[in-house]
Write a structure and sequence with these properties.
The structure holds three protein chains of three kinds. Chain A has one domain: Rossmann fold. In chain A, 40% of the residues lie in helices and 23% in strands. Chain A is built from five helices and five strands. A five-stranded parallel sheet of chain A has the order 2-1-3-4-5, with helices on both faces. The longest helix of chain B has 24 residues. Helices cover 52% and strands 7% of the residues of chain B. In chain B, strands 5-4-3-2-1-9-8-7-6 form a nine-stranded parallel sheet. By secondary structure, chain B is an alpha/beta fold. By secondary structure, chain C is an alpha/beta fold. Chain C folds into three domains: 54 residues, no CATH class; 213 residues, Rossmann fold, CATH 3.40.50.300; 56 residues, no CATH class. Chain C has a seven-stranded parallel sheet with strand order 4-2-5-1-6-7-8, sandwiched between helices. In chain C, helix 2 runs antiparallel to helix 5. Chain C is globular and about 65 Å long. The two termini of chain C are 37 Å apart. Classes of the chains: A alpha/beta, B alpha/beta, C alpha/beta. The interface between A and C is large, with 37 and 41 residues.
Chain lengths: 134, 560, 338
C-alpha cells in the first residue's frame, strides 16, 4: 500500500501580518515532501477551521507574533472539536512566552515551536506524531 | 585618481608581498571558516587596500559634511552640534499605561517620543471589532478615539517634544488626532513636530498591514504630504521604511534598494498628482532603516543611502534646495537578530547595532530591549536599552568627530559596492514600470522570500551562526521577567467605546463621515475632514471604513 | 457528523453511510475520499463506484492560463457570481508538486478567502503529483466526488502552461483561457493549441500596456480560424483593474454570462452529449489502464522482470514489441492482472 502524503496547513490567525516565519515553514514543509495549504495572514479562527476541514489536513500550524495566541489558538482547537475534527493536530509558533505553554497544551495545542527551533525538528515532530488515517 | 601614484605603487608592491605571505600561511594553517561574508551573504575580502578606491574622486564621491553628495552627513557640525535623538518605540495596553511609560522614558533622558500601536489600531479596527479579539493592547497601545489620544499625550508638551507614530493605513486618522489634540492644547499646527510612518508601499512588499489597494493608498499619502507642506511644516508626513523589509528577511542591499525605490515612487506620484514643486515637500521626506548585526555592512548601507538619495534628488528630480537632497533617517536595531535563547546576549547585539547606526550617521535611534523577542519591554529592559544610547553618546567618543570611518579602504569600498548593487535593483524596477508595477508582479516580495529562506537554510546548515541558538547553546535557562497585558485592557476599551458612542453627538459624526466620503470620491485632500471627524469623536474604524467603502479593500495575493 | 470512513483511530464504518454523507454534501467525508483517491487506497475506488450513479450532473468550468495570470482571483469572482444565482459550488485548485521532494505549496485558497465559510462552497486544493497535463492525477475522481455531493457547478483551476497537452479538455464543459498582456508568450500560446480548447478568452489585468494589441491579435487569429455554422466563436472578455469595484463587477458578470451562453450552446448543438461521450471514453480508457496496465507493470517491477527485460532490450537480444506481446498473452490468458 503506497504511503499517504502528509497534508498540513500553515495559517496566521489574527491581525498580525509578520509572515516571514510562516512562509519559511511552508517552503520547508514542501521540501520535506508534504502538501502544504498556505492560507496566509489575517485569518479568523473560523476561516482556519473551515479550511482545515475542507482540505482534510493532518495538521494545522498556527503562527502568531502579536500576543493574541492565548485567545486565538485555543479557539481554533475548539472550533475543530465542534465540527468533529479533533483528529486534526494543531501546533503553534511565534512569540509565545514559556509561561503560556501549559495553558495552550491544556487547551489542546500539541506542540509549540518558538524562534530558534530548527526546521528539521518541526518536520520530525510532524512525521512522528501525525497519523495520516492509516 | 584618489591616491597619488607613489601611494599606489608602494601599495601594490606591498600587497603582492602580503598575498604571497598569505598563501604560505593558509597552506600551513587554513582559515577557521570557509567563507567570510556579511549576514546578508556579501563576500568580504581579507584585506582592502588603496587599490580598492583608485577610481574614487574625492569631491564627487566623498566631499565634506553638509555638502553634496552628503556621504559624510547632512549637518556641518555632525554630532557635536547635536547628538542623534534617543527615540524609543513604545506603547502598551491602554493610553494611560503608555502615557506612564512615556513619562518614565522622558524622565530617564529620552529626547523624542515614538508610538507603538496595537494590531487593531494598526489595521484600522476598533477595540470592540470581532477582529480585535485577543489583540487589544497586546503589542502596542489601543487608540480608538481622540479621547484615548488625549490620555496618551497627557502632560506631554507638544511644542517641545517631537513624536513619531508607527502607523500606516490609518495614518491620516492618527495624525488628525494629533493635530486635533494640539489645537485643544493651544499649540499651533505650525509648531508641532513629529513623523507618521505612513509608508504603504513597504506594507505591500513586507509588513502586510493592509487596508486599501496601492493606488488609493498612495493617494492618501500624497494628501498628507500636501497638507503638511501647507499647514504643519515641522512634520515629516512619511517615513519611507526599510526596517520592515529587512525584518521580512531581505538582504541589506535589497533593504537599501527597495526603500530608496519606494522613495522615488512617492516623489514621482506627488509631483504627478499634486503638481507641487519638488522642493516644496522633499525636505520633509524621511526614512527609516534597520541596524542589523553586521557592523560594517550596516554602516556602509547607511552612508550609501545618503549618497544615492542626494544623487537621485538632484539628478532625477532636479531639486534645488539643499534640504531636498538630505536623507534624514531614523534607525531601529534589528528585531530579527535577537534570540529568545540566552536573552541577555541581546544587550550585546543591540549595542553593536546601535554603534553601527551612529557610525552610519543616523538622526534618530531606537534600541531594542533584551526581552522584545518574548514580550513587550519591561521597565528595566527598556532602561538598559536607553542607557545603551546614552553610554554611546557620553562615554565612547563616537560623537567627537564626524563620519569617523570615512577614507577607510574597507568602508569606502563596501559603501561603493552596496551603492552599485542597489542601483542595479533600482534600474531593474524602473524597467518594470516602477515599484507599484513591480509589486503587482510580486518581484520585491519574492526577492525577500527567497533571501529569507536562503538565510534560514544557512542557519540550519551552520553556515551562519546565531550564538545561543545554533552554536554555544545551553540547557541553562536565564528567565527574564515577562510583561503581560491583561485581557481587561480589551474589556475596558470596549466599555469606553460603548459609553462614548452613547454620549457623543452622533449626528455630527455621521455628517463628518459623509463629508469625508464625499471628499474621497471627489479626490479632495482628506486631512481637514479627518480632523473634523476625530474632533466629533468618530472612531478610527468608522473613518477607515469610509476608506474601505470608497477605495475597496486590498486582497493579499498570497505569494511565496 | 463528519467522520471519514476509516478514521485515524482505525475504525471502519459502513461504506454506504459514507457515500450517503457525501451525497448529502458532507465536506469532511468528501475531502477524505478525495484524499483516499489521491493516495490510491483500494477501498476508495470501491466507494467511488458507489457514488458513480450520482455523478454527471454538474456543470464543469475549467480555468487555465500561465502562472500569474490571475486564475484564482477570477475563480473567486466567478464563485461570487454563482452564489448570487444561488448555485452551490465546488472548486478544485490545482498546483504543481515539486519534482524534487514530492511536496507542494498549495496557495490558491488565499485568493478565495471570502468564500471560506460559505457552507455551499467547497474549495479543495490538489497537487499534480507528477501528472504533466496541468491537472492532478486524481482530478477526474475529485470532480466525481464533488458531483456526487450535488454541487451545481464545479470550477477546476489548472496549471496551464499552454504548450502541453492539457487534460482539462477531457473534464470540463466550458474552458476559460486567461491571458495577460506583457507575459511574453501569448502569441506562442495561441498557436500551440490553446486556440482549440478555449471556449471563452479572458484578457486579465487589461489595464496593463499591451492589452489592446493582445485583443487585436487574438481577434484576428480567431477570425482566421475556420468556423462552421454549428461552431462557437469564443468571446473575448477584457477584465481590467480589480480595484475599480463597479467595473470589475460588471466584467465578471459579463464573463459569467459568456460561460453560461456557452453551456447553453453545447446543449443545443448536441456537443454537450458528444463531450460527455468523449469523457466516458476517456474514463474507461483510464480505468482499463489502471486495471490492466498498471498492475501488470507493478508485478513486473516487483518481481524484477521488468529490469531484466529492459536489459535484454538494451543489448538488442529482444525488442519491446515481442516482449509486450508475450506479456500480453501471458496475462490475458491467465486472466490475472494482479
Amino acid at each position: 500500500m503506497p504511503e499517504r502524503k502528509i497534508r498540513v496547513m500553515v495559517a496566521k490567525p489574527g491581525l498580525d501580518g509578520h509572515d516571514r516565519g510562516a512562509r519559511i515553514l511552508a517552503r520547508c514543509f514542501r521540501d520535506a515532501g508534504f502538501e502544504v495549504i498556505y492560507t496566509g495572514c489575517h485569518q479568523t479562527p473560523e476561516q482556519v477551521a473551515a479550511a482545515a476541514i475542507q482540505e482534510d489536513v493532518d495538521l494545522v500550524g498556527l503562527s502568531c507574533l502579536s500576543g493574541a495566541h492565548r485567545i486565538l489558538f485555543p479557539r481554533v482547537v475548539e472550533l475543530l472539536r465542534e465540527k468533529n475534527a479533533s483528529d486534526i493536530a494543531v501546533i503553534g509558533g511565534g512569540i509565545i512566552p514559556e509561561q503560556d505553554f501549559q495553558m495552550l497544551y491544556d487547551a489542546g495545542i500539541q506542540a509549540i515551536f518558538t524562534p530558534g527551533a530548527s526546521l528539521d525538528s518541526i518536520v520530525d515532530w510532524i512525521r512522528t506524531h501525525v497519523r495520516t488515517g492509516n | 585618481m584618489y591616491f597619488s601614484d607613489e601611494t599606489h605603487k608602494a601599495s601594490r608592491k606591498l600587497t603582492q608581498q602580503w598575498q604571497a605571505n598569505v598563501r604560505n600561511a593558509v597552506t600551513a594553517k587554513p582559515d577557521w571558516k570557509k567563507r567570510f561574508s556579511t549576514v546578508s551573504d556579501l563576500d568580504i575580502q581579507r584585506l582592502y587596500t588603496p587599490e580598492d578606491l583608485q577610481n574614487m574622486d574625492f569631491a564627487r564621491d566623498i566631499g565634506a559634511p553638509g555638502e553634496f553628495p552628503y556621504l559624510r552627513g547632512n549637518q556641518v557640525t555632525g554630532y557635536r552640534g547635536q547628538p542623534w535623538t534617543f527615540r524609543m518605540f513604545s506603547g502598551m495596553g491602554s493610553a494611560e499605561d503608555t502615557n506612564r511609560r512615556w513619562h518614565l522614558l522622558l524622565r530617564e533622558g529620552q529626547t523624542g517620543l515614538s508610538t507603538a500601536f496595537d494590531f487593531p489600531t494598526l489595521m484600522g479596527y476598533d477595540s470592540d471589532s470581532p477582529k480585535a479579539l485577543g489583540e487589544v493592547g497586546k503589542c502596542g497601545v489601543a487608540i480608538d478615539t481622540l479621547e484615548d489620544f488625549l490620555a496618551l499625550i497627557d502632560g506631554i508638551p507638544l511644542d517641545q517634544v517631537t513624536t513619531s507614530m508607527t502607523i500606516n493605513p490609518p495614518a491620516t486618522v492618527l495624525w488628525a488626532m494629533y493635530c486635533a489634540a494640539a489645537e485643544i492644547k493651544g499649540v499651533p499646527l505650525n509648531q508641532i513636530g513629529g513623523t507618521i510612518q505612513n509608508d504603504m508601499l513597504k506594507e505591500f512588499i513586507a509588513q502586510k498591514t493592509f487596508m486599501c489597494p496601492p493606488e488609493p493608498s498612495v493617494k492618501l499619502i500624497s494628501d498628507t504630504v500636501e497638507f503638511g507642506a501647507k499647514y504643519v511644516p515641522r512634520w515629516n508626513p512619511i517615513s519611507i521604511s526599510g526596517y520592515h523589509i529587512r525584518e521580512a528577511g531581505s538582504t541589506a542591499v535589497q533593504e537599501l534598494a527597495f526603500t530608496l525605490r519606494d522613495g522615488i515612487e512617492y516623489v514621482e506620484d506627488i509631483l504627478r498628482r499634486k503638481k507641487m514643486n519638488v522642493d516644496d515637500f522633499a525636505p520633509r521626506l524621511s526614512f527609516f532603516f534597520n541596524a542589523h548585526i553586521d557592523l560594517f555592512e550596516e554602516i556602509c548601507k547607511l552612508r550609501a543611502a545618503r549618497r544615492i538619495w542626494a544623487r537621485v534628488m538632484r539628478d532625477r528630480f532636479g531639486a534645488k534646495n539643499p534640504r531636498s537632497l538630505w536623507m534624514r533617517f531614523h534607525v531601529q536595531t534589528a528585531g530579527c537578530s535577537l534570540t529568545a535563547q540566552q536573552p541577555y546576549n541581546n544587550v550585546v547585539r543591540t549595542t553593536i547595532e546601535a554603534l553601527a547606526a551612529v557610525l552610519g550617521g543616523t538622526q534618530s535611534l531606537h534600541t531594542n530591549s533584551l526581552d522584545e523577542v518574548l514580550c513587550l519591554p519591561s521597565e528595566h529592559a527598556v532602561e538598559i536599552a536607553l542607557r545603551t544610547q546614552q553610554i554611546l553618546a557620553e562615554e565612547t567618543g563616537v560623537v567627537n568627530t564626524i563620519d569617523p570611518l570615512a577614507g577607510s579602504y574597507f568602508v569606502e569600498s563596501l559603501t561603493n559596492e552596496m551603492e552599485k548593487k542597489a542601483w542595479e535593483y533600482i534600474e531593474k524596477i524602473d524597467a518594470m514600470g516602477g515599484m507599484i508595477a513591480a509589486i503587482e508582479r510580486g518581484y520585491p516580495q519574492m526577492e525577500i522570500a527567497d533571501a529569507a529562506y536562503a538565510f534560514q537554510r544557512q542557519i540550519e546548515a551552520g553556515e551562519k551562526i546565531m550564538v545561543g541558538v545554533n552554536k554555544y547553546a545551553t540547557e541553562a535557562r536565564h528567565p527574564v521577567p515577562l510583561v503581560e497585558i491583561d485581557e481587561k485592557v480589551g474589556e475596558e476599551q470596549v466599555r469606553r467605546l460603548k459609553d462614548l458612542r452613547r454620549r457623543r453627538d452622533n449626528r455630527a459624526v455621521s455628517q463628518s463621515l459623509a463629508d469625508l466620503r464625499a471628499a474621497c470620491k471627489n479626490g479632495e485632500n482628506v486631512m481637514p475632514h479627518c480632523i473634523t471627524a476625530v474632533k466629533n469623536l468618530a472612531t478610527e474604524q468608522e473613518i477607515c471604513d469610509v476608506y474601505r467603502e470608497v477605495y475597496g479593500e486590498y486582497q493579499d495575493p498570497g505569494l511565496f | 457528523m463528519s467522520e471519514p470512513e476509516t478514521d485515524r483511530r482505525g475504525k471502519h464504518h459502513d461504506m454506504t453511510q459514507t457515500t450517503q454523507k457525501i451525497c448529502a454534501g458532507d465536506v469532511r467525508s468528501a475531502s477524505r475520499l478525495i484524499r483516499d483517491l489521491e493516495d490510491k487506497r483500494p477501498e476508495a475506488r470501491r466507494r467511488l463506484r458507489q457514488l458513480f450513479p450520482h455523478t454527471g450532473r454538474s456543470f464543469i468550468i475549467g480555468i487555465t492560463g500561465s502562472p500569474g495570470a490571475g486564475k484564482s482571483t477570477l475563480a473567486d469572482a466567478l464563485i461570487g457570481e454563482l452564489r448570487k444565482q444561488n448555485k452551490t459550488v465546488g472548486v478544485l485548485a490545482v498546483d504543481p508538486s515539486s519534482p524534487f521532494s514530492g511536496g507542494a505549496l498549495l496557495g490558491d485558497r488565499v485568493r478565495m478567502l471570502r468564500h471560506a465559510e460559505d457552507p455551499d462552497v467547497f474549495i479543495r486544493s490538489l497537487a499534480t503529483r507528477g501528472a504533466l497535463g496541468g491537472l492532478a492525477r486524481a482530478a477526474g475522481d475529485a470532480i466525481h466526488v464533488m458531483e456526487a455531493m450535488g454541487k451545481d457547478v464545479i470550477l477546476v483551476e489548472t496549471v496551464g502552461i499552454g504548450q502541453q497537452e492539457l487534460d482539462i479538455i477531457h473534464h470540463a464543459h466550458s474552458i476559460i483561457v486567461v491571458l495577460v498582456p506583457g507575459m511574453g508568450d501569448e502569441i506562442q500560446t495561441m498557436k500551440a493549441g490553446i486556440m482549440e480548447i478555449a471556449d471563452v478568452f479572458v484578457i486579465n489585468k487589461a489595464d496593463r500596456p499591451g492589452a489592446k494589441q493582445l485583443r487585436t491579435e487574438l481577434t484576428a487569429l480567431l477570425n482566421a480560424s475556420p468556423h462552421g455554422p454549428r461552431d462557437w466563436v469564443p468571446p473575448i472578455v477584457s477584465i481590467g483593474n480589480l480595484y475599480e469595484p463597479e467595473i470589475f463587477a460588471k466584467k465578471t458578470a459579463e464573463l459569467m454570462d459568456a460561460v453560461t451562453k456557452h453551456h447553453a450552446h453545447l446543449i443545443v448543438s448536441g456537443q454537450f452529449a458528444e463531450r460527455a461521450e468523449r469523457k466516458a471514453v476517456m474514463e474507461i480508457t483510464d480505468a482499463l489502464s489502471a486495471c490492466i496496465l498498471e498492475p501488470v507493470l507493478e508485478r513486473l517491477i516487483a518481481n524484477g522482470e521488468l529490469k531484466k527485460i529492459a536489459q535484454k532490450i538494451q543489448t538488442r537480444e529482444t525488442d519491446p514489441f515481442t516482449e509486450a506481446e508475450a506479456i500480453a498473452r501471458r496475462f490475458l490468458k491467465t486472466g490475472e492482472t494482479s
